[in-house]
Design a protein that fits this description.
single chain, about 90 residues, mainly alpha, 434 Repressor (Amino-terminal Domain), about 55% helix, globular
Length: about 90
Amino acid sequence: MLGVEPVELLAIDNAEGLALRELRVSRGMSLQGLAETANASSSTVRRWESGDFRRMPAKDVVDALARALDVSTAQVETALVLARRGA
C-alpha cells in the first residue's frame, strides 16, 4: 500500500467537499456495491453521481447512502448538490 487514504489522492482537502462519485471512490466502493447497499439501480446511482436528476433522493435513500459510505447524511446531501452543480 501507499500509506495514504484514497481521499488524499483527490484534489480536495477533505470529504466535506466531495461530489457523490468522488465520495464513493474515496471509500473504495464500486458503483454496483453502492447501488445494492442503497437499494437502487446502478443506472440511478450513475445519474445521481453525474448530477442528472431533478429531485433529491428520498430521506431513507440518503440515509442508506450515508450508512454505505460511512459519512453523515449532510455529507451525502452536499455531495449530491455538488454533483448537480458539476453537471
